[in-house]
Amino acid sequence: SDMAIHTVIAEASGNPLNSLLLGALRSPVEASARMHLDDSRSESELTRVIDAHDAVVERICAGDPVGAASAMSYHFDLSLVHVKR
Predict the structure, then answer these.
(1) Rg of the Cα trace of the chain?
(2) What is the pLDDT of residues 14-59, one digit of tens each?
(3) Distance between CA atoms of 22 and 6, rounded to whole angstroms?
(4) How far is CA 14 from the centre of its chain?
(5) What's the gap between Cα 34 and its chain centre?
(6) Rounded to an integer, what distance in angstroms lies between the CA atom of residue 37 and that of residue 60?
(7) Distance (Å, whole) CA 65 – CA 67
(8) At what angle do helices 43-61 and 65-84 cross, to 10 degrees?
(9) What gap in Å lies between CA 71 and CA 62, rounded to an integer?
(10) Distances (CA, A) of 1 to 12, 50, 64
(11) How many other C-beta atoms lie within 10 A of the C-beta of residue 66?
């Protein structure tokens, strides 16, 4: 579902580069997800990730590009913390 939401957002952007970039990142992102399947994320961590996705979608639907970029930046920050662990 994580890749699905990113795919929908990339396609909805209307910028073909976003879909190309996401396609190029698909394999490493999926490999990282598989590698961390044994990770036990706390319920609060999972809630933060879901809330981060919700915030991105809400800002996009509101037509707020600055808010969407800010929400996406926060989402990337959460992802980096997990990957660095």
Answers:
(1) 13
(2) 899 999 999 998 888 777 767 665 566 678 887 888 899 999 999 9
(3) 8
(4) 18
(5) 16
(6) 29
(7) 5
(8) 160
(9) 13
(10) 16, 11, 23
(11) 8
The Cα-based distances of 20 to 7, 23, 53, 74, 82 in angstroms read 10, 5, 21, 22, 24
Q: At what angle do helices 2-12 and 16-35 cross, to 10 degrees?
A: 170
What are the backbone dihedrals phi and psi of residue 40, each rounded to the nearest 5 degrees, phi first?
A: -105, 95
Q: How far apart are CA 67 and CA 31, in angstroms?
A: 29
For residue 42, what are its two tokens? Answer: 């706390």
3-state class of 75 per DSSP? Answer: helix
By the 8 A CB rule, do 10 and 22 touch?
Answer: yes
In the chain, the amino acid numbered 70 is S
Token representation of residue 53: 């996705």
Which tokens hold the place of 34? 């598989």
pTM for this entry: 0.75
